[in-house]
Automatic annotation (TrEMBL):
This is Zinc-or iron-chelating protein. InterPro entries: Puta_zinc/iron-chelating_dom.
Length: 202
């Protein structure tokens, strides 16, 4: 889908962001922590995704279709979501295996898919970030061709974007800082103490 939206759509988006941020601020004021706020936003994104799309259009997305998971440059996630994704890796051997893949990805100049992609499927589907929940397409061939004009449901895009930007508005600057997914996960692994970030740079 082209990034061009009308002034009216831009206004709707801004209003949506403000409404989402105000709602999330209320949750935080009531004691919600960042993880529960993120999980709330993820549930909202899933509900938006489940809503019926335009009549006569059939989503091309299906289990095993992984074109968008391979467009690494376009998958940017926040620090807070990267921390959440890594939180499911509680086993030390799993952590080290993932860390090795992340470090290999970092060291490879060639284009790499998301490190969480395994045999065409997301290995952390339950905690996948908001940008992945927003992603959808009505034309898998356009995704495969890395087209910049993948046909999408504009309403879904705008509502999802309002959720994501509203979330970003209420997280701390550090939590909301975004980076390409593999890079963000490697930084999250350092924060989680899986390895010393200093050691990785020596
Ligand atoms: S986190 Fe999962 S859904 Fe998102 S890009 Fe990676 S493999 Fe794909």
């Amino acid at each position: 889908m082209s990034n061009q939206i009308s002034a009216q759509e831009q206004q709707m988006l801004q209003q949506g962001i403000q409404a989402v941020a105000a709602h999330l601020q209320q949750k935080i004021a009531a004691g919600a922590d960042s993880v529960s706020v993120i999980r709330f936003v993820h549930r909202q994104l899933d509900q938006i995704a489940d809503a019926p799309g335009p009549q006569g259009m059939t989503l091309a997305c299906a289990a095993g279709c992984d074109h968008c998971c391979r467009q690494l440059k376009q998958i940017e996630i926040s620090e807070a979501e990267a921390d959440l994704m890594l939180s499911v890796f509680t086993d030390a051997a799993q952590q080290q295996a993932l860390l090795q893949r992340l470090q290999q990805s970092e060291a490879t100049a060639a284009h790499q898919p998301c490190v969480m992609l395994e045999q065409g499927r997301c290995s952390v589907y339950a905690v996948r970030p908001g940008v992945c929940r927003k992603a959808h397409s009505y034309d898998a061939a356009a995704c495969a061709a890395l087209s910049e004009d993948v046909p999408q449901n504009l309403e879904r895009v705008l509502r999802s974007e309002a959720m994501l930007l509203g979330l970003r508005a209420v997280l701390t600057p550090a939590q909301s800082r975004v980076a390409p997914v593999n890079q963000a996960l490697l930084a999250a692994a350092a924060r989680a103490g899986w390895f010393s970030a200093d050691a990785s740079q020596s």
